From TrEMBL:
Its main location: cytoplasm. It is found in: Cytoplasm, Cytoskeleton, Cilium basal body; Cytoplasm, Cytoskeleton, Microtubule organizing center, Centrosome, Centriole. One of its GO terms (biological process) is cilium assembly. One of its GO terms (cellular component) is ciliary tip. It comes from Cyprinus carpio carpio. Residues 514-563, 577-605 are annotated as: Disordered. Keywords: Cell projection, Cilium biogenesis/degradation, Cytoplasm, Cytoskeleton. It holds the Pfam family ARMC9_ARM. This is LisH domain-containing protein ARMC9.
């Protein structure tokens, strides 16, 4: 019974603590009155979870007085062990604080006891250097201070002149105050909120664990299959070697025996019924089947004169610009998935076809601002094709001005233009990268998407699906899910005939209604933890839909235009290492946990 009362008291105390923290003062007072009226257990003190300015005042007072004993007690009591022992900022600050208290009697002498006090502090500092301070002994910044206890008069030693300047102590005090304000504020987090955040973290970890277990099971099945094939191959090889040895000794091998061995050899690559119908005893049959099972050689496309091509993209006629943009896009979309497409993309990037590294005032990228609508459309199609590939997204993300061009185009193009559809598709694919997500959120793209989706009945299926998917990707970030007024709007877009779209909308609403957890996503982390590497490269068929550009009579287009007018030195005939593209294994009913692209569920090229 006593344990139950204690637990109830803890729970009620946490509720009251949260109400006070969130400044629901009136609610907290009513809550406390009702607890007393109902005879509930007395509320427990928040203890170490609540801090106020008096703690900081005590720290600063002992710092100013040079009272290292009081300060040490406050440090041990108020600074969590995980911060004291492992946080680099805390360790560095503690080192300088130890120096401050050691040299304090030299700065502020108060009587004949100074010498004894100084010796006591030096002994204390030596002990610190040998224990907690030993971790910084290999750091160049702190190395000179390990000699401080052994210098007879540090005030005149050149290595320690900085310590005795008038500005050193105020600067250290300011650093201490800033550190304490952050640490003690974090410690003020109500226990109820801490428990809830922990619960959410556990839920997220469970989802990740479930996904990891699912992937592990898939890989284990693949491994078991490979292992079985390996053992089968070893057995067949041993039998064939035995047969060869028997043949050398003059013993004949029966056709039935050869048929059985070959059926075992090809059973993993052919259906059993098909393997049984093949006459492996017929000369040449086995070698033919082996050759057919080998991967086919994929021809690589001819190299191009990219300098001439880029020059014409910038200075040529609008018709030529559009034809070249179309031809480059077709090279990506119509190349074979795998080595051939990899080689095309790598050639485009290594030759900087969009002039990312150009210092010229007018570059290929500026075609997004062309006065000719067809040029803008075909430029946006090409960028969308680049964005469909992981390597292309990485290349595009290195162009600081691209995002601005795309957002400007998104807001100025006609509502249902093909140009705007492709720009939206490119933005959605770029949102797989964290830095681009952050930039889109900062530029107010969430607000634009919400406004655009108000009139969803007037949007094409492509625009609606990519707009919803882009919004979902942005809402996965803490910065994005602060827009909590969108639930009613989003529910208007659910369509019975599109369960995939409905599932994404429900996920966005769930993200929007999640806890408003303070974000710890420093800008420097935007290049890390991208979801891009997990996304399968997909070229959706929509990239080449509704071609409005038609060549004039006797005018070259596509690959003919490139290989006739822009053929370069054959530099890309050296084979590249083919990147492995594992098939997407995500179930269509599995909840989305990371940014995705709708084209994963579309017909692809």
């Amino acid at each position: 019974m006593g344990e139950d009362l204690a637990s109830e008291s803890d729970l009620l105390s946490m509720i009251n603590e949260y109400l006070r923290f969130a400044e629901f003062e009136e609610t907290a007072r009513v809550f406390e009155k009702e607890l007393k009226r109902k005879g509930k257990p007395a509320l427990r003190s928040a203890g170490h979870s609540r801090r106020d300015s008096s703690a900081i005042d005590d720290f600063l007072s002992s710092f100013n007085d040079g009272d290292y004993k009081v300060f040490s007690e406050l440090w041990a009591k108020n600074i969590p062990p995980e911060i004291r022992d492992f946080d680099p900022v805390a360790q560095k600050l503690e080192f300088y604080l130890q120096i401050h208290f050691t040299i304090y009697p030299l700065k502020f002498p108060v009587g004949s006891h100074d010498k004894g006090e100084l010796e006591s502090r030096i002994t204390h500092f030596k002990h610190y250097l040998e224990t907690r301070g030993a971790a910084l002994s290999q750091t160049t910044e702190f190395l000179p201070f390990y000699a401080l206890p052994f210098v007879p008069n540090p005030t005149v030693h050149p290595s320690f002149q900085e310590l005795f300047q008038d500005s050193w102590m105020p600067e250290l005090r300011e650093k201490l105050e800033k550190f304490l304000s952050v640490i003690l504020k974090a410690s003020n987090t109500p226990r109820l909120l801490t428990l809830y955040v922990s619960f959410l973290s556990i839920q997220q970890m469970q989802l990740h664990l479930t996904e990891a277990e699912r992937k592990s099971a898939i890989h284990m099945r693949r491994f078991a299959k490979l292992q079985a094939d390996h053992h089968s191959l070893i057995g067949v090889t041993a039998e064939l070697v035995d047969s060869l040895e028997a043949t050398v000794r003059g013993k004949m091998i029966s056709p039935e025996y050869l048929q059985g061995v070959c059926m075992r050899l090809f059973s993993g690559h052919m259906r059993q019924s098909a393997a049984q119908s093949v006459d492996f005893t017929r000369p040449g049959t086995v070698s033919h089947c082996l050759h057919r099972s080998r991967p086919k050689e994929v021809p690589l496309l001819p190299s191009l004169d990219y300098e001439k091509l880029k020059k014409d993209l910038v200075n040529g006629s609008d018709q030529l610009k559009a034809l070249l943009l179309q031809a480059l896009r077709w090279r990506l979309t119509r190349s074979l998935h795998g080595e051939q497409r990899d080689t095309v993309l790598q050639a485009f990037i290594s030759n900087d076809v969009l002039e990312r590294y150009s210092s010229k005032q007018k570059t290929v990228l500026h075609l997004m601002k062309s006065k000719n609508e067809i040029v803008r459309q075909y430029m946006s199609r090409l960028i969308n094709a680049f964005a469909s590939l992981c390597g292309g997204r990485m290349y595009l993300s290195q162009m600081p001005s691209l995002l601005r061009f795309l957002l400007d185009c998104l807001k100025t193009e006609e509502k249902e233009s093909v140009t705007r559809e492709n720009v939206l598709g490119a933005l959605q694919k770029l949102s797989l990268r964290r830095a681009q997500q952050s930039a889109m959120i900062r530029d107010g793209l969430i607000g634009w998407l919400v406004k655009e989706l108000h009139d969803s009945d007037c949007l094409s299926d492509y625009t609606l699906e990519y707009a919803i998917s882009l919004l979902m990707n942005l809402c996965l970030r803490t910065q994005g899910n602060r827009y909590t007024s969108m639930e009613e709007i989003l529910r208007c877009y659910s369509k019975e005939e599109n369960p995939e779209l409905n599932r994404q909308i429900e996920f966005i609403i769930k993200q929007l209604n999640s806890a408003d957890i303070p974000e710890h996503e420093p800008e420097s982390d935007d290049e890390e933890d991208d979801d891009d590497d997990d996304e399968e490269d997909v070229m959706e068929a929509d990239l080449d839909k509704e071609e409005v550009l038609q060549p004039q009579p006797k005018e070259l287009s596509g690959e003919s235009l490139l290989t006739t007018e822009y053929l370069g030195i054959m530099t890309n005939m050296v084979k590249m290492k083919r990147r492995s593209y594992p098939p997407s294994t995500r179930s269509i009913d599995e909840p989305l946990q990371r940014p995705v692209t709708p084209s994963s569920h579309k017909n692809t090229m």
